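User: I'm new to structure prediction. If I give you an amino acid sequence, what do you actually give back? Let's try with this one:
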Amino acid sequence: MIGKYESMIILAPNLNTEEIEKENKKVLSLVAEVGGEFIKTDTWGKKTLAYEIAKFREGYIIINYFRMNTQQVKQIDRHYRLNEVIIRHNIIKLEAIEEEA
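Assistant: Good question. You get back a string of structure tokens that encode the predicted 3D arrangement of the chain. For your 101 residues, that looks like this:
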């Protein structure tokens, strides 16, 4: 089944703008690689975190929206967990989309 997802990542605050864009492009290319469809990106920028994460008090927040097969979400999650500059992430299923016959 295909679903619509929201994915938030918090990147380490010591990255520059070019590195942040590069990391987000990696995520978007992985979404396309596994057969997903990118919808949009909301960049919140550098924010103070409510609590310390990986010894950081700040982080760059990026939210991506995409559609993809529910089974492929595991690959995106795996990429997040293995990427050292992503200090926190989540993937939320917004809605299920009926596949067209």
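You can read the tokens as a compact description of the fold. Here is one thing that stands out. The chain is about 25% helix and 50% strand.
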